Amino acid sequence: MTHLKNNSELAVIHSMLDELPSVDAMQKSLTEELFTVQDVVRYLVSCFSSYDIYVGHGTDNYWDEALEIVQAVMHLKPPCDDSTLNSRLTSSERDIIFKIVYQRIINRIPTPYLTHRAFFCGREFYVDDRVIIPRSPIGELIENGFLPYVDSQPKRILDMCTGSGCIAIAMALHFDEKVEVDAVDVSEDALEVCRINIEGYNLENCVFPIKSDLFQDLQTGDKYDLIVANPPYVDAYDLATMPEEYRCEPELALGSGEDGLDCAKRILCDAPQYLEDDGLLVMEVGNSEEHLVDLFDTVPFHFVDLKRGGCGVFILSKEQLLAYHEVFLKALSETKND
What angle, rounded to 10 degrees, do the helices at 188-200 and 166-174 form? Predict the structure, then answer.
């Protein structure tokens, strides 16, 4: 028998530690007991940890997730300084925070869908559940002007599978609106969100939303200096086992066949027809990078070394796409036959 076995107080302590904060307890704490930004954020971190929510839609830790909720309610943009942390929240702000946190924890709705905002390349974008939440590591390439791969000002860029339009808009802004960007998506719902963001940045004369099933409905003969593609690439296993938060996003924008490469194969086959002779394809396949390399083991994909995290972003020239065109066609035909 251990010395602590009969200590009833220990059992109470352990029970209290194991008990999840109830909805009523969270509401009371947030609306009646906590007042400063720092106090509320600290409490939210504890709640998120207790409920083991998943973060990955704009943040990668509980503190930043909590802080983004509070800042959104305060109509402030990150980063948050010490003066903000020490400021007091109004009762109405704390009430809204509780309502958001309830949906975030109990219904596992990603924060950007609750606040209608997400950040990409340092810019704010409107989002709702008609589009996936911006998080592509391609943003790192955009901020670097695609150097060293692109060494001159592009005239025309195609953003394939544009979703919210964040990639297209970020590219247009980086190149000082001296570029024409076609923002393509098969979903009219997604293009409606894209238009909201285009109008928000007054880029109607620079970024053009186009409805098309990949290249299928694009004008024959169109040529681009750069094609940037962030297609659906989640394989069947990851789609079946992904955290609950991802199930709030449109499945059309996530899954792409058993190996996650159905869309990627089509893009690889058709892209050279739409590239200038010195044009480049930049494409993200995320965790399906392994499937891609296994399937096309003779193709010299150049995978970008991403300093800020992420994986599966590769670059191929038009010359390379043409050189391996038959390889890509064969893989695509086998997909259609399955």
Answer: 30
Let me know: does 160 contact 214? Beta carbons within 8 Å. Answer: yes
Residues paired with 207 in a beta bridge? 181
Does residue 146 share a domain with residue 91? no
Residue 120 lies in a domain: no
* Residue 251 dihedral angles phi and psi, to the nearest 5°: -60, -30
Q: Per residue in 77-91, pLDDT tens?
A: 988 888 889 999 999
E strand map for 52-93: none
Q: How far is CA 130 from CA 46, 197, 260, in A?
A: 31, 13, 21
pLDDT band at residue 121 using 50, 70 and 90 as cut-offs: very high
> Would you say 104 and 52 are in contact if contact means Cβ atoms under 8 Å apart?
no
d(CA 272, CA 185): 19
Q: What is the largest CA-CA distance in the chain?
A: 83
The burial of 224, by beta-carbon neighbours within 10 Å (0-12 exposed, 13-18 middle, 19 or more buried), is given as: buried
Tens-place pLDDT, residues 255-277: 999 999 999 999 999 999 999 99
User: Please, where are the H alpha helices in 74-178?
Assistant: 82-85, 91-106, 111-115, 138-143, 166-174
pTM over 0.90: yes
Q: Say if CB 172 and CB 203 are below 8 A apart.
A: yes
Residue 2: what pLDDT?
65
Amino acid at 285: V
Which residue is associated with the tokens 């005239």?
155
Range of the domain at 322: 131-337
Lookup result for tokens 């027809």: 273
Name residue, tokens 């975030």.
104
Residue where a domain terminates, one of 115, 149, 176: 115
Per the structure, the count of domains in the chain is 2
- Which residue(s) pair with 180 in the sheet? 156
